[in-house]
Amino acid sequence: MNIGEPTEIMFPRPGAEGPLGAADTVPATLLVVAKSPIAGFAKTRLAPPFSPVDAAYLAACALLDTLDAMRESGIRHRVVAWTGDIDRAERAIELSAALRGVTVVPQRGDSFGERLANAHRDAAEFGVPVLQIGMDTPQADADLLTRSAARLVATGDTVLGPASDGGWWALGLTDPRPAQLLTDIPMSTSRTGELTETALRHSGCRVHALPTLTDVDTYDDAIAVAAISRGRFARSVTDLVTARTPVPL
Q: Which of 23, 28, 72, 163 is deepest in the core (most CB within 10 A)?
């Protein structure tokens, strides 16, 4: 995951999530760490071959799919740690509407690790344990999120979802304090997942593995994830690739 530098939130602050439905059965908080999908600010490694606007559009699609999965999951509390100006985002109107259904808190901190640690602390105020994900795994559907949160509750400790590039796509904690370890771990490297797991174990956490996923950072990632997912992201990748493919004479 690569969130970028924090900026002021520029949309009306949504209220807390709505009344619990019958599906809201897992007593946990789902935390999504997200940045405004602005051209040149979000998913910059997709450009080229996609344009900066197309890359940001795909980021918006992935985030909307993630927010759908969050809403449809059986996880009781839903929090988004946000950075960036939503008015400049691709699909800004849809994102604003989707965010009204969750609790939105601003990201705090200078480094990515600091923002992750602070986001865990902020989300824990709404209920522990906290399962944190990013906005670049649109293949993580509601069922996977619900099962991951249920595993976190059942273990009573820590879950970590490895990413195929050596990072991680999900981190679940029953106590937000170990998240402070993230401030000293290099992010967005091929060893981020390994270093995160080692630090957690050294702090006394028992780490239980979630399924390995591919997060979307590069063009090849986008193609691979679109092939196994459904929703806006998969359709948009297909449309953009088709538009770039020359028509045979």
A: 28
Per DSSP, 11 falls in state S
For 231-240, the pLDDT digits (tens) are: 999 999 999 9
Q: How many CB atoms lie within 10 A of CB 6?
A: 19
pTM recorded for the entire structure: 0.90
Order of all β-strands in the sheet with 75-83: 103-106, 75-83, 26-35, 130-133, 168-173, 158-162, 207-209
- Residue position matching structure tokens 């770039």: 244
Write out the two tokens for 154.
């059942």
Tell me the per-residue pLDDT of 175-193, one tens digit each, with 9 for 90 and over: 999 999 999 999 999 999 9
Distance in angstroms (rounded) separating the CA atoms of residues 58 and 68: 15
3-class secondary structure, 45 = helix
